[in-house]
Design brief:
The chain is of the alpha+beta class and 228 residues long. Helix content is 36%, strand content 24%. The chain folds into two domains: 2-39 and 192-225; 63-175, OB fold (Dihydrolipoamide Acetyltransferase, E2P) (Beta Barrel). Strands 1-3-4-6-5 form a five-stranded mixed barrel. The two termini are 17 Å apart. 21% of the residues are buried. It is a multi-pass membrane protein. This is SURF1-like protein.
Length: 228
């Protein structure tokens, strides 16, 4: 019997640790879902008719706004890929509000072949969400300014290039609509939430651990019985 104590303890402790990790991931899942619900509620909330005087990337991220003003000349093209569509570009343009503030707007997506087509500027009303996307990293290619190809929405760099405040409004709708441009509104789709898969993995490992412990104990028991 003493020979079975060590494998039994190892099995119980290992299974307890793996189950605890699974429970922790379930708790993390509830936490992440609450965050996503909060973000969704913010995105779809009532739109402000004016910009915050000094918007902050954390406090004002996803804030809905409805702004009247003028889409100005000049635009930047950010390379992206759309499911079931393929490669294309986000169209980033300068926008001057009726209050005289000049900001960036993400008008939406165009296919690769439409990159250099002329798009209308002039008076417009946009419904949008403020956003400071975190898309740059050590592996982000350098902007090809000669061909006007950007590989990430770097708000500070784009604002410097177009002479605007470092504020990006991602368009949900634009009036009048822009022919050939499909809005890509802010959503929670790109925010990872893998905690359910992690929880299943830990609980599965716990089940395997318990099964292996049972096999170990069974072999230990029978090996004792067959000793001469």
């Amino acid at each position: 019997m003493k020979r079975l104590i060590a494998p039994l303890l190892i099995g119980l402790v290992g299974a307890a640790i793996l189950c605890a990790l699974g429970i922790w991931q379930v708790q993390r899942l509830a936490w992440k879902e609450a965050i996503l619900d909060d973000i969704t509620s913010t995105i779809s909330g009532p739109a402000d008719a004016t910009l915050p005087s000094d918007p902050a990337p954390e406090a004002d991220r996803y804030r809905p706004v409805q702004l009247a003003g003028t889409v100005d000349e000049g635009e930047l093209h950010v390379l992206v890929s759309q499911k079931r569509v393929g490669a294309g570009y986000r169209i980033i343009a300068p926008f001057t509000t009726e209050a005289g503030r000049r900001v960036l707007i993400d008008r939406g997506f165009v296919p690769t072949e439409d990159k250099d087509l002329e798009r209308p500027a002039g008076e417009a009303t946009i419904t949008a969400n403020l956003h400071w996307p975190q898309e740059t990293g050590s592996f982000t290619p350098e902007t090809d300014r000669d061909r006007n190809i950007w590989f990430a929405r770097d708000v500070a760099a784009m604002a410097d290039a177009l002479g605007t405040e470092p504020i990006l409004a991602v368009v949900r709708s634009e009036e009048p609509p822009v022919p050939g441009v499909t809005p890509l509104p802010v959503s929670t789709e790109g925010i990872p939430n893998d905690h359910l898969q992690y929880a299943i993995t830990w609980f599965s490992l716990a089940a395997v651990w318990i099964a292996m412990t049972g096999i170990w104990l069974r072999r230990g028991h029978f090996s004792k019985d067959v000793q001469p």
